[in-house]
Amino acid sequence: MKTAFLFPGQGAQKCGMGESFAKYDEAAKKVYENASRLLDLDMEELVFTENKKLDMTEYTQSAMVTTGIAMLKVIEKTALKADVCAGLSLGEYEALYLAGAISEEDAIVLARHRGKLMQEAVPLGVGTMAAVLNLDAAVIEDCLKDIENVWIANYNCPGQIVISGTVEAVEKAGEKLKEAGAKRVLPLNVSGPFHSGLLKPAGDKLYEYLKNVEIKKPTIPYVANYTAEFVYDDKDIKELLRKQVFGSVRFEQSIRNMLKEGVDTFIEIGPGKVLSGFVKKIDKEAKVYSIETVEDMNNVIKELGL
Fold first, then answer.
1. Which one of 51, 55, 218, 302 has the fewest beta carbons within 10 angstroms of its own beta carbon?
2. Is 254 among the catalytic positions?
3. Of the listed 20, 113, 191, 195, which one is catalytic?
4. Do residues 17 and 271 lie in contact, with contact meaning Cβ atoms separated by under 8 Å?
5. Stretch 46-69: mean pLDDT, rounded?
6. Cβ–Cβ < 8 Å for 94, 75
7. CB contact at 8 A, 223 and 84
8. Which of 20, 89, 164, 191 is catalytic?
């Protein structure tokens, strides 16, 4: 059995995520306390109480990464082990932490910095994103070729691809994609055109910041969003993180590469079951589990006979 741990991205966040882990284990609670100190904000209040800030990019990203790391502090004490890991967009930072490439402190601070840069990159209302349903990737790529300021943001799974760019360009692309046979083109409730060329300045600024961050050689491979390839070395990670901000997230290709390498069990760690749904659409035979709570964790351990 080869197991992959998967980490969700922005959009999966919800009030109370990770709380059962923080109540269950002091090590998990300490991650939230450390994040509060590092970022000079009350992370437990941000994540465990109803508030609007949790859905604001500059706060969401550090909250999600803090939660993922807190959960891992508990999971790593069990028999659950990953042979490889990956995350969707922001989730790549939790994968890097699990792989031993980045420290807890750096992951949390980087996520906050990344969130701020992405939020500030494009004025509110200028950019947007939309999900294109039931249309082949090659057809979408062909449709977008002649439209400026729109890009493929996410290759999620068969039948679901996300486009990103200026509001005008995404609307124009939407009409063309419907004519080409898309079942639906659904506007997404997002605060910016993430993973589009409009965010290149944010990626470049993040890279400047990354120059002062220590990245180590991964102890287990992780699969990078930008290339969908296994990463065994530390030398390209900073550049991959730069390009990930404005490049396409190749989640489907990442899963297919893991399957090729013999991964047959996928465990999603974090709020929601979005990635689990994607994996099932990519390969019906794959064993897929999701962990949101301590109870989920114990059930997965039991089901896997560990």
1. 302
2. no
3. 195
4. yes
5. 95
6. no
7. yes
8. 89
Task: List 152's β-bridge partners, or say none.
Answer: 163
Phi, psi of 222 (to 5 degrees): -125, 160
Number of neighbours of residue 240 by Cβ within 10 angstroms: 18
Average pLDDT of the residues in 106-134 = 95
Confidence (pTM) = 0.96
CA 134 vs CA 161, 207, 223, 245, 282: distances in Å: 9, 35, 26, 26, 14
Q: What is the pLDDT of residues 280-299, one digit of tens each?
A: 999 999 999 999 999 999 99
Query: Tens digits of per-residue pLDDT, 177-186?
Result: 999 999 999 9
Q: Is 89 a catalytic residue?
A: yes
159: region left, alpha or beta (phi > 0 left; psi from -120 to 50 alpha): left
